[in-house]
Design brief:
TIM Barrel; 12 helices; globular; 8 strands; eight-stranded parallel β-barrel; about 250 residues; binds 1,3-dihydroxyacetonephosphate
């Protein structure tokens, strides 16, 4: 069955103390969500925040990245095993900020997807086009290429564990949201692509989240679209009230 999910990507925000406070407020304000609530704090906070999240049903801990190698001499990096050992069940992979600032390629991301799945983490795999690609109306092909290159080598069983997040880069942190029709168009094309590769049943069960200036005001309209199964939230996930409204907008 297709899961509805709202995931909060805190990015590089909040000290541990602030993060704990935010998590407590989130847990306090969100009761009986219609889907899963995933919180992705910075690495340093995972264990403590994971402990808080584990006290309530439907709440899950995610990392924002992991290294593609199992272990070894990779100073400053963190492995999938380590993330599992502190309670993560999800990991965000392929965020446009990682692709842009840390030069993560489709091939590197395929390796990160592989190690995550092998270690029992569910990837929240991000895709999305920059503004110039949207302007030349080649966004559907651009996103298809990202997905094919990093995900379509997976077996059906593996693919079923992946959550896809469509995040148009021009909408991230800009206050410029994709319209619900633009989101629906892309989400439908992603689902069709998955159907072509893995069949209709798998496509129908695939969770596809929208991300990019999704907030308390526009979440309900976005989530009402038939192929939008929730959101990956940046800025608005840093405010418990707003995040709770967004979770409440799940269908
Ligand atoms: P904003 O919600 O701040 O636009 O960020 C979206 C995002 O990048 C989530 O991963």
């Amino acid at each position: 069955m297709r899961q509805q999910i709202v995931a909060g990507n805190w990015k590089m925000n909040k000290t541990l103390e602030e993060g704990v406070e935010l998590t407590k407020a989130i847990l306090d304000k969100i009761n009986q969500p219609k889907g899963l609530v995933v919180v992705a704090p910075p690495l340093t906070h995972l264990q403590e925040i994971g402990r808080l999240l584990s006290t309530k049903k439907s709440f899950h801990l995610s990392a924002q990245n992991c290294h593609q190698e199992e272990k070894g001499a990779y100073t400053g990096e963190v492995s999938a095993d380590m993330l599992v050992s502190v309670g993560c069940s999800f990991v965000i992979l392929g965020h446009s900020e990682r692709r842009q600032y840390f030069k993560e390629s489709n091939a590197t991301l395929a390796a990160k997807v592989n190690i995550s799945l092998a270690k029992g983490l569910r990837p929240i795999f991000c895709c999305g086009e920059p503004l110039n690609i949207r302007e030349t109306e080649t966004h559907v092909a651009y996103v298809a290429k990202q997905l094919k290159a990093s995900l379509f080598h997976l077996s059906e069983t593996e693919f079923r564990k992946v959550v896809i997040a469509y995040e148009p880069i021009w909408a991230i942190g800009t206050g410029k949201t994709a319209s619900s029709l633009q989101a629906q168009e892309m989400h439908k094309s992603i689902r069709d692509l998955v159907a072509k590769k893995y069949g209709k049943a798998v496509a129908n069960d695939t969770t596809i989240l929208y991300g990019g200036s999704c907030n308390a005001q526009n979440a309900a309209e976005l989530f009402a679209q038939p192929d939008v199964d929730g959101g990956l939230i940046g800025g608005a996930s840093l405010k418990a009230d707003d995040f709770a409204v967004i979770v409440g907008a799940l269908k």
